[in-house]
Please model this.
Amino acid sequence: MRWLAAVAATMLLAACSPAGDVEGGDGTVGFTTGDGTVTIVPEAEREPAPVLEGPSIDGGTLSTADLAGSPIVVNVWGSWCAPCRAEAPELVEAAERLGDVEFLGLNTRDLDEAPAQAFVRAFDIPYPNIFDPDGTLLLGFGQLPPKAIPSTLVIDAEGRVAARVIGEVNANTLVSLVGDVG
Model:
């Protein structure tokens, strides 16, 4: 049983390690190291964002369908991820500065809600968070997938994926990015 826990811990840490691409057994590339790269999709080329729906880390159900008509910032994070901890205060600041923009956290790879709940309390995260332990919701982003933890996606007011940041994001970059793709 201990070896299983060690393997699980290694897999979790690999998702935000500096090792580069992590190749799956089927030959697909999984999560990569985030370096802060920003990708903006030209307005004419934007594709609809998937509807993200799932259990809130605090109970109940959350859905991006309930936020339709507003720009949405989706941050993919895990409580075990050091870069996620580093960027958390920046996201809180950006959420305060972008008061008319909806924020939604997508907690992934945490096997239990308790660490995610502790993370939200520790960093005073003001926005709701979906609990997605197996990363299923990440699969819906075809054009611009969140390939690292953390990743941040900007969905425009028309419900299309407009931008992505792979890795840590700071408040100034995010505020500027949302303004650019708004």
About this structure: The chain is about 25% helix and 20% strand. The CA atoms of residues 86 and 142 lie 27 Å apart.
